[in-house]
Amino acid sequence: MESCKVVENIYLLVIVTLISVLQNVFFAQKVERECKNRNMNTSAFERVSCAKRNCMDAYPTFLAVMWCAGVCLSQAPAAFAGIIYLLVRQKYFIGYLGQSSQSTPGYLFGKRIIFFLSLMCIVGIFNYLLWRFYGSDYKEYVETITGAASALLLLP
What we know:
Elements: H1 2-37, H2 43-72, H3 75-97, H4 104-134, H5 139-151
Helix pairs in contact: 1-2, 1-3, 2-3, 2-4, 3-4, 3-5, 4-5
């Protein structure tokens, strides 16, 4: 029964992580397909390869802050922000395949989501320290604010 309680607290984060793994497989297949279909020195291959590399550079940071925010504060807003980040990353990747200027909105929006998840991490850790050393627990208030603020991520 104890393992069910643990899974209950992280299952949304696990789902988003698995979706992100599938997205990485999609990116790798695009690079492989471009490599097989054309000469590896073409600009199309370079764009696909660069887009995948750029997405993979930010991937560990995304996973770290999403899990930290979900475990330390609240999994639902963290998972929601994670799904939005994956959609933005997809937009960035597809935009990079066209003109690189089409990828800029996805990149900037992705940075905003990473910043939001980082703030969630800091607030969650700060709340834990308040509870640990002063006995004050503001988690319910912070979860309410975070849940409402996560909807603001949808604004351009």
